[in-house]
Design goal:
Oligomer: heterodimer
Strand content of chain B: under 5%
Largest interface: A-B, 28 and 30 residues
Distance between the termini of chain A: 70 Å
Number of helices of chain A: 52
Number of helices of chain B: 20
Largest sheet of chain A: 3 strands, antiparallel
Structural class of chain B: mainly alpha
Helix content of chain A: 55-70%
Radius of gyration of chain B: 30 Å
Strand order of the largest sheet of chain A: 1-3-2
Number of strands of chain B: 3
Chain lengths: 969, 378
């Protein structure tokens, strides 16, 4: 970071020989610093682990970088900030040392470790979804906070790594390690290269990170080039703002690009870059450039070029932000190259990210919208994989693409876009990237105010609705022009293409209207909505337009969530390592609360007055929502918003059970509560979480529903609320269809009840109904399930037919308990009241008859069995009969009339009994009078228990194939 | 070298190989002195050892510890197979002590399995030794010694690391030594639950005879389970025992068995249902029903014999129904018939039932066999 600062200074000195604009830094810095400080506590946590893992780069660098920038202006402030972070009154040298460490040959490993470490973290976080979100947030936080490229780069790395792991790409940890290794090797090489070059050792450190990138770059030169260009562009832009030297930066950019196009490796580029720029290798710049690659590198390897490019985007973004605040001049924003890339990507992809492209191109006034898009990424994430959003092509964007991204690299660009969309949004301001290039080319020339600037001013005023806006507009313009003058970019800036800055929040509406925007933004219409309303839409039901809702947060897919996290960083809330959810919930709140120096605030600071920052931020966030208007997307959003609404309502209602109506997706489930939690207390421990808030609230209105065993978190849209379930139960009870249908329906009802954690008398009723039906159908497994559920339900004091089922339970226990312990236990559980119940009494008698082997009593009890007890007693009939005939054949002599056996063993008639007896090996003789007699002595020797007629190989006749094939639902 | 010596040398070679190579599974069977059947190696050496045999030269190649272990172990084997259990125990304990010392020095837990065997063997040997000592009128102290040795083993195991798991095993052996009464009591109760009345009787009787006679509460706990077990085996307690042990809940049951009064049994069951269910003897008491019926039938039979010895062995169902009516048991003839059939089926009554004439024809020889310690139905 020090290097950077130095480089910056050098550049400035060289380019203009001018010193930094005092005004610039003061203006920008104040806003930043407070934010940073605030952010630190949150970020620090993360940083430390990283530092421990390997190099200090991640944690400290980012901060240091930031401070460094400041330092150029205000060294003291810088150090203070540093000390706060590292808890060391670190001087610049100190920082350097840290970097040097990184540079060491061991560094590559350290990098690898870091990446791994991150992975590890990630996994941890995965276990608790929320945490993941946090991590990502941190990363995001960093970027925005740092606003400076250096700082951002590391955090980004972290962030990206996390993202990838969880993300759609499904890259595994293994992949990252590889990347790490890869990086390390690259790193070493690069280091060498760097050493050769002009850069100082400390620069190395910065480079070390880039090295990995370099390797990656070599693999995909085109992409690299693009990124570099972007970065370069950003750089120049940044510098421009800070000092007149800006011109140099553009030049360097060009150089870099050329080299890239040549296919030279990154190291080359780096070396060449400084040289070509003619600037003394600005340590700061080098480090800066390097950083982004470094961050990207791990990903890159793991993923593809795309991943890499994304990382770059990220980096760019932060840069952009940084620029914005400082420059406060819209042109600078536009100049950042990063944005063009995004645009291109978007176009190609036509994914949900389309929004992002729009963002970049939106005029300054639209900047806010852009911010909103940043939030949008979450929603878009959902869309990412699945559907593609139509992105309105922007001519400018196209140009940008050509300019910044080599078309050969489309793939990479696409990938970038996919990942980067969030970034894109951020970078929206950076759409100026074009500008930088143009600036460089056009540069120098005019005296006084260029006509293009005049037109720009006119445009900016034209969009003002009221006096207040005009006033703020004027003030902002003043600042911009002053800065531009100070930077020396006044004439170099392409004011025609410079997007208009954002007006204060009050004029948010106006922003959307901003006619000055040269780009035809399809989404502009949406911008017209009042930001406040949009913001609302996120947390609350959308009144008018459903699509804009940010429900994306709730994406069911884990990967999405990760993406979300990734994006969240953009949102101010994310910075502070707040869970992503927090962002969604009340961005405003958080912004106010934390007051960190977010990128957004920064931007706002540049454009609008500080007092408005918070408001502005919220508006931006809210407004950022969706730029894309494709019907498909709209529908999706509507859907999502609906779900989200519900969840919000539930929360508001404070019903724990109902709290989570929305709950549809898994992530929703997990995340929303989380978010809610974090709103209140960002650092809630897992055990403190209100898990009740995860409860699903169904929205399905279908009465019939087939049972499907859940393999994932339940989707509220397929879960029926209690009212519908009651109808469903009534339907089942009245339907003439067979048991298979009823069982299926009842199981789905039970599932819906379980999922929604409904445990009341209705639940008991459902289980009782199913248990009875199962008994009637002889479906013991299902009956047992119901029975065990009923046991706990009754245990909770819910009313139902306790006694009836207590009786069933007893009858079951007799059969199932191999030892008597369970039987005794369940008898002991019976209350005196229960023992007076007829059904229970009967069951107890049956139990006694069974244990005593008293078949006469058993079959008498069978005949007067209440309820469905006969169904259960049926289970013993065969056994009891067999035992009885064994007993009788041994004790009766010489014969027993079949009619008698039939009578006492509960056969319907003698013939039936005779058949049964014959089937069991009894010897039956016919008496002279025609009566059948059992020859007991002969029978005693030949009795056997035949295989049951309905036996099936798998042992469960209920699963008979015939039933299966004839099953109709 | 004689066959016997060769056999001893072979055993020593196996033992030392397993020991040096730290092959626990291979070493274990060589240690299990009392195992039945013994491992072939152990068996062959056991038959080859003689009191005066000197195997010192075979042990020379080994270090002192191993030599000592093997030396004492061979002695133990020899004594064991010659029936001198006290000496076998002493030798085995010496061997085990050295082994334990070495065990402490091993970092791995390879010897856990042999150590388990040692822990088991030392207890079994001690028990046998104590039996022998007691039979010779000497003080049976070996089990105590085994207990203290196992405590040392426990000390070696109750550390951090892989050996720790062995502590449980040793604890079990210790439990059997120091808490055998408790052990028997609980396993006896388990047998009551499982209706293994013979095993329950044996274990609970052991617990009763070995428990501290001054601990009346312990005695009561044991008797509480032992009484139902004995009842189901046809052995009735004296009333004084039940009174002394404060177990009045069994009085009615015992009376019912004596008198053949099913009423009393039912009353006992309903009066003390909770208690019986809680202690888990409810079903055991309930099963006494058949014995009560048997007693009732016997009474009828005796009465008929008094009246008319010639026809005493024919018991008409109407008589039985009348009897049960007197006992306030509301049973019709079918139920009574069923009970008669069950009594015959369960061998509580010898004879047969003539359905046509509704008469139980009793065997003239011992129509109501006594259980005499056998469970019903055997």
């Amino acid at each position: 970071m020090d290097l950077e600062s130095n480089s910056v200074e050098k550049q400035q000195t060289e380019g203009g020989g001018q010193e930094h604009h005092p005004s610039m830094y003061p203006s920008a810095m104040p806003g930043h610093q407070p934010g940073i400080l605030a952010a630190r506590p949150a970020t620090v946590e993360w940083n430390y682990p990283r530092a421990n893992a390997s190099s200090l780069e991640n944690g400290i660098p980012s901060i240091s970088g930031y401070h460094d920038d400041q330092r150029t202006k205000d060294p003291a402030a810088f150090q203070d900030g540093k000390s706060a972070l590292s808890s060391t009154g670190a001087s610049t040298t100190h920082d350097y040392s840290a970097y040097i460490n990184n540079q060491n040959p061991a560094d590559p490993y350290s990098h690898a470790y870091q990446s791994q470490y991150y992975n590890y973290q990630h996994s941890t976080t995965d276990s608790s979804h929320q945490q993941v979100g946090i991590v990502q947030d941190t990363g995001a936080t960093y970027q925005p906070l740092s606003s400076f490229q250096n700082a951002s780069s590391y955090p980004q790395t972290n962030y990206s790594s996390t993202y990838y792991n969880p993300g759609d790409y499904q890259t595994t940890a293994g992949y990252q390690p590889q990347a790490a290794g890869y990086q390390s090797s690259d790193y070493t090489q690069q280091t060498n290269a760097w050493n050769n070059g002009n850069y100082a050792s400390h620069q190395y450190s910065a480079y070390s990170v880039p090295d990995a990138n370099a390797a990656q770059y070599s693999s995909s030169p085109a992409v690299d080039a693009t990124h570099y260009q972007q970065q370069y562009g950003q750089w120049p832009g940044y510098y421009n703002q800070t000092a007149p030297d800006v011109m140099c930066a553009p030049g360097t950019e060009h150089m870099a690009r050329s080299s890239v196009s040549g296919g030279s490796s990154l190291p080359d580029l780096n070396q060449g870059y400084p040289a070509k720029s003619n600037q003394p290798p600005p340590p700061g710049t080098t480090s800066w450039r390097q950083d982004p690659p470094a961050s990207s590198s791990p990903y890159f390897q793991g993923k593809d070029v795309a991943g890499f490019s994304q990382t770059n985007d990220w980096q760019n973004r932060p840069l952009v932000f940084g620029n914005t605040p400082r420059a406060q001049a819209p042109p600078h924003f536009q100049q950042t190259l990063g944005s063009p890339t995004f645009v291109s990507v978007d176009e190609q992809r036509k994914t949900g990210y389309a929004k992002s492209p729009k963002m970049p191109f939106t005029p300054p006034g639209q900047v806010r919208p852009n911010f909103r898009p940043a939030l949008n990424p979450l929603p878009t994430l959902e869309g990412l994989r699945g559907s593609k959003f139509q992105i309105p092509t922007n001519p400018r964007i196209a140009t940008n693409l050509a300019f910044s991204v080599s078309k050969t690299d489309k793939e990479s660009a696409e990938k970038d876009a996919s990942i980067a969309p969030a970034y894109i949004n951020v970078s929206v301001p950076s759409s100026t990237g074009e500008g930088t290039s143009h600036d460089s080319s056009q540069s120098l020339a005019k005296g006084a105010f260029p006509p293009s600037l005049r037109a720009y001013v006119e445009r900016s005023f034209a969009r003002c609705k009221d006096d207040a806006q005009r006033l703020s507009n004027q003030n902002i313009l003043k600042e911009i022009i002053t800065k531009a003058t100070a930077d020396g970019t006044l004439f170099t800036q392409d004011w025609d293409t410079e997007p208009l800055f954002t007006l204060p929040a009050t004029s948010a509406d106006n922003v959307s209207k901003g006619p000055q925007i040269s780009f035809s933004l399809l989404s502009l219409n949406k911008l017209k909505r009042s930001p406040s309303r949009r913001a609302k839409s996120r947390w609350e039901p959308v009144v008018e337009e459903k699509p804009p809702v940010l429900t994306t947060n709730l994406n069911p897919v884990a990967s999405d969530s990760t993406i979300l996290n990734r994006f969240t960083p953009k949102t101010a809330e994310a910075k502070f390592a707040m869970p992503p959810s927090s962002t969604f919930r009340s961005p405003r709140k958080q912004a106010k609360k934390t007051r960190f120096s977010d990128p957004y605030p920064v931007q706002n600071g540049g454009v609008s007055s500080d007092s408005d920052k918070d408001q502005e931020l919220t508006k931006l966030l809210s407004g950022a929502i969706s730029m894309v208007d494709s019907p498909e997307e709209r529908r999706k959003r509507e859907h999502r918003s609906k779900r989200f609404e519900k969840s919000q309502e539930g929360k508001a209602g404070g019903h724990k059970n109902k709290a989570f109506r929305a709950g549809g997706g898994r992530n929703k489930k997990s995340k929303i509560p989380f978010t809610a939690k974090f709103d209140d207390a960002p650092r809630l421990a897992v055990e403190d979480m209100d898990w009740d808030s995860f409860t699903v609230r169904g929205t399905c209105q279908e009465i019939e529903k087939r049972y499907l065993r859940l393999t994932s978190a339940p989707d509220p849209s397929t879960v029926r609320p209690e009212g519908v379930l009651e109808k469903a139960l009534a339907l089942v009870q009245s339907t003439p269809k067979n048991y298979l249908y009823k069982c299926d329906q009842l199981k789905s009802i039970r599932q819906d009840l379980t999922v929604q954690r409904i445990r009341n008398e209705f639940t008991v009723k459902v289980y009782e109904t199913h248990a009875r039906l199962a008994l009637e159908a002889g479906d013991l497994p299902e009956f047992n399930q119901c029975q065990s559920q009923l046991k706990t339900l009754y245990g909770e004091g819910i009313n139902g037919c306790h006694f009836e089922f207590a009786a069933y339970n007893l009858l079951c226990v007799i059969r199932h308990s191999s030892t008597n312990r369970e039987l005794v236990a369940s008898m002991a559980r019976l209350t005196p009241v229960a023992k007076r119940d007829e059904a229970v009494k009967h069951a107890l008698q049956v139990r006694a008859a069974v244990t005593a082997g008293n078949y006469v009593l058993f079959f008498r009890l069978y005949k007067k069995a209440p309820n469905l007890s006969p169904c259960l007693m049926d289970l013993y009939v065969e056994k009891m009969r067999f035992e009885a005939i064994k007993c009788m054949s041994k004790s009766y002599r010489p014969t027993v009339p079949v009619s008698f056996v039939s009578q006492i063993l509960g056969f319907s008639d003698g013939e039936d009994c005779a058949d049964w007896l014959r089937a069991h090996g009894a010897a039956i003789t016919a008496h002279a009078d025609g009566n059948l007699l059992v020859d007991s002595k002969a029978t005693a020797a030949g009795l056997y228990m035949p295989e049951p007629d309905d036996a099936v190989p798998h042992g469960d006749s209920n699963l008979a194939v015939d039933d299966f094939f004839t099953a109709k639902f | 070298m004689s066959e016997a010596q060769r056999s001893v040398a072979e055993f020593i070679r196996r033992f030392s190989d397993a020991y040096i190579l730290q092959d626990g599974p291979f070493l274990t069977p060589l240690i299990a002195v009392s195992s039945c059947p013994p491992s072939p190696a152990l068996f062959s050496v056991a038959n080859s050892l003689s009191p005066n045999q000197d195997w010192g030269r075979f042990l020379k190649p080994f270090d002192a510890q191993l030599g000592e272990i093997v030396n004492h172990h061979l002695r133990a084997i020899q004594f064991f197979y010659s029936g001198r259990y006290a000496d076998a125990y002493s030798a085995f304990e010496k061997s085990a002590n050295v082994f334990l010392q070495e065990f402490r020095n091993w970092e791995t837990a390879w010897a856990l399995q042999p150590l388990y065997t040692i822990a088991y063997e030392i207890r079994v040997l001690a028990e046998k030794a104590d039996q022998e000592l007691a039979s010779h009128g000497k003080n049976p102290e070996k089990l105590k010694g085994a207990g203290s040795f196992l405590m040392k083993v426990f000390g070696a195991l109750a550390t951090k690391g892989p050996k720790r798991v062995g502590a449980l095993h040793v604890t079990c052996q210790l439990f059997k030594i120091y808490f055998k009464v408790t052990y028997m009591y609980y396993t006896g109760r388990l047998e009551v639950y499982n209706e293994n009345f013979l095993a329950a009787d044996q274990k609970l009787t052991y617990a009763l005879t070995h428990c501290n006679p001054k601990r009346t509460s312990n005695i009561r706990m044991i008797v509480k389970y032992l009484v139902p077990v004995k009842l189901s085996l046809g052995i009735l307690p004296k009333e004084s025992l039940l009174e002394r042990c404060n177990l009045p809940e069994y009085l009615n049951a015992v009376q019912a068995l004596k008198r053949g009064d099913i009423r009393l049994l039912r009353r006992a069951l309903s009066e003390h249902e909770d208690r019986f269910l809680k202690s888990g003897v409810y079903l055991v008491i309930e099963k006494l029903e058949l014995q009560v019926y048997q007693r009732m039938m016997k009474k009828i039979y005796m009465l008929q014999k008094l009246k008319d010895p010639a026809k005493a062995h024919q018991v008409k169902m109407e008589v039985v129904v009348k009897a049960s009516r007197w006992l306030e048991m509301d049973m019709d003839i079918d139920e009574v018939e069923c009970i008669m059939a069950i009594l015959i089926y369960k061998n509580l009554m010898k004879g047969y039932f003539a359905h046509k004439s509704k008469v139980v024809v009793l065997s003239k020889q011992d129509p109501f066999p006594k259980l005499n310690g056998k469970p019903v139905g055997d």
